[in-house]
Amino acid sequence: MLYGGDGDDVVTVDADDVVYSGGDGRDQLIYDATTDWSYAIASGDFEAIRSGSGNDSIYGSGADDEITLGAGHDFAQGYAGADEISGQNGNDTIQGFEGDDAIEGGAGVDHLYGGDGDDVVTVDADDAVYSGGTGRDALIYDASTDWSYAITSGDFEAVTSGSGNDSIYGSGSDDEITLGAGNDFAQGYSGADTLRGGLGYDELQGFEGDDLIEGGGGDDTLSGGSGGDVFVFAGAFGHDSIWDFAPGSAGDVIRLENGPFADFNAVMNAAVQDGENTLLTLDAERSITLLGVSKSALQQDDFVLI
Question: TM segments (predicted)?
């Protein structure tokens, strides 16, 4: 029989232990055994659980639980709190259930479900099934292999790709897509989407809706599609091109953050007509090409200088 008492205690048990309690404080329970284990957390007893190397089942409480699974093929359900649940090498099934949960499967072929609440679900190339459930959920792909993913409306609202060459396709909702370090492709589809590129040579297409598009590092190709789109250029963004910038009353805007231009006149002085295109050069490492746009068509309302 093991009792933690007051304070933040760590209680380590095995299959033969009959009674164990953390007491007051933020307590951790470690199951140090290879046999299968099933444990339901009692609210206010243990706040952090680490299972063993068997095929274990852990059930959360109504509080904010921290569950770390072992090497077996495990099951974990977080229940009502804002839970943190992570797997390891086995083929795990993790359910956040209610609350704003953070879920990560680890290695293995995992099944991950956010449930209710605004959840963050982290997956890798081996994970078979993942769903955000209700709420505004975020999906993070933590792998270097190439990845293609189509967002389902109402499932994940924010998606972050990995370091491979990834392709992300938006839904009919307002999607937030953040690309990783590879040479990536993203298409927002019909909502008011936010698309942000990474360090590679990315292609970002807003498609329909009033989108916010930022290429990030690398030489990127940008397209807003229909709607009044905002193209953001900040930091070392490289040499980017916009395929379909619509100046004037069409509603597209270029937002330059921490750029060298004091006002619209300075922008126009730096812009040159290059055949059918307008080339705006900030410095040797940064430029924006507006394909098919005449310099004379540009207006002050086309630019926001921050």
Answer: none
